[in-house]
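Researcher: Let's do a round of design. I'm pasting the structure tokens now; please hold your answer until I've finished.
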């Protein structure tokens, strides 16, 4: 068996269960093997058989394509989360639950951290509000899966289970010991432009725009409040809010703990490409650190510039 493939498969198992004892117990629930037989396979004394590999991959939804080595120096694995946010099926919910579970693991590590680079309002902020979540879902619908019939803002309804997963996602983010948020300087303007466009093509009414404006003002108030504090009020965990001096052309999120790295590239509004590959993580971390060095820290200091920034955002929201 290809060593690169086998090593990547073991890494995929370790990503799911960072504690080896937990991994062994979980594998015993899948395979008709004794504990010592599984340990031998994890140590590579004896390899998993092809049948065992396929059974594990099937039960845990591990993509074999993503872990096959072709050119390991140039090709790295990503997983495209094709989640349907409307008319969601059980598989869609399971993907989000798995994502939240990984964030929970990172939050449990005292050294865990997250860096988010974003050129629009991140899910951790819009997910706090029903109408903004509906708007981002409407944008996702027209970018990802153009509907056969016209769907307007009033037709978009988020299920209670999906809303609960959004709330859990935010809770998991707040439980991470250190969170660094790097924002594009025009991220509010980008969102305003999008709202104006959907209003111009009559997919959003004037009354619905008013609802979005109200929630956006609440978002700005919340952002300013936590920027002043420099931490999340509900957990006390540190928040570093940065404003980039340059336009950010891609949004991504990086999470790191002693057991797990996670690179999430945001595409099509609410979908993402996800990788647990450490080389991918390091590439994106280098990009994030470059942006961070050319950004201004607004949280916990820089009070004048912070006040001017948030005042300007409120004026832009009120004027559209």
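Researcher: That's everything. Go ahead.
Model: Designed sequence:
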């Amino acid at each position: 068996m290809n060593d690169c493939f086998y090593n990547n498969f073991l890494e995929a198992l370790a990503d799911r269960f960072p504690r080896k004892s937990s991994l062994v117990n979980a594998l015993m629930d899948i395979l008709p093997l004794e504990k010592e037989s599984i340990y031998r396979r994890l140590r590579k004394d004896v390899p998993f058989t092809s049948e065992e590999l396929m059974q594990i991959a099937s039960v845990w939804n591990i993509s074999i394509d993503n872990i096959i080595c072709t050119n390991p120096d140039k090709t790295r694995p990503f997983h495209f989360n094709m989640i349907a946010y409307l008319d969601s099926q059980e598989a869609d919910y399971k993907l989000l639950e798995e994502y939240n579970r990984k964030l929970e693991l990172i939050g449990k590590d005292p050294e865990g951290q997250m860096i988010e680079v974003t050129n629009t309002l991140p899910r951790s902020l819009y997910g706090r509000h029903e109408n903004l979540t509906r708007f981002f879902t409407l944008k996702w619908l027209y970018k990802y899966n153009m509907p056969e019939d016209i769907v307007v803002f009033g037709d978009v309804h988020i299920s209670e289970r999906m809303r609960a997963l959004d709330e859990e996602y935010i809770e998991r983010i707040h439980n991470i010991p250190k969170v660094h948020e790097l924002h594009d300087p025009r991220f509010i303007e980008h969102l305003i432009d999008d709202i104006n466009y959907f209003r111009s093509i009559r997919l959003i009414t004037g009354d619905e725009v008013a609802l979005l404006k109200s929630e956006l003002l609440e978002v700005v108030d919340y952002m300013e409040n936590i920027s002043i504090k420099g931490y999340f009020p509900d957990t006390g965990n540190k928040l570093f809010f940065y404003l980039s001096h340059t336009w950010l052309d891609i949004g991504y999120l990086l999470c790191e703990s002693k057991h797990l790295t996670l690179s999430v590239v945001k595409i099509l509004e609410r979908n993402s490409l996800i990788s647990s590959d450490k080389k991918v993580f390091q590439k994106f971390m280098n990009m994030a650190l470059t942006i961070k060095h050319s950004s201004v820290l607004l949280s916990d200091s820089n009070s004048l510039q912070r006040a001017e920034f948030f005042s300007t955002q409120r004026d832009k929201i009120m004027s559209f």
